[in-house]
Amino acid sequence: MAKKGGKVEHECRTSGVVVEKMAEYMETDECIKACGVDRKAIGISSDTLLDPRVLNKLCSTACYHKCPNIIELYFNMAVGEESILALSL
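Structure for PAR1 protein, as requested:
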């Protein structure tokens, strides 16, 4: 969205990461709720992986075993940040 004068307020773009087996896949509302994510959020930060509440949601059975796209996103983000995200139950 550009304001008067051409200053960009928000810029939307997609990740350069492509997961072939999940192309065009949209998470269900149940997954959004179970994993504690927000469709309307702008951006994503690896800082969220430091929050135990976020990790508890991601590691919950309802999220980890039923919402692979969200788990893949956070795992890839952790790898990109050279962090270790141990999501195993």
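Helices lie at 29-35, 52-59, 61-64, 68-80.
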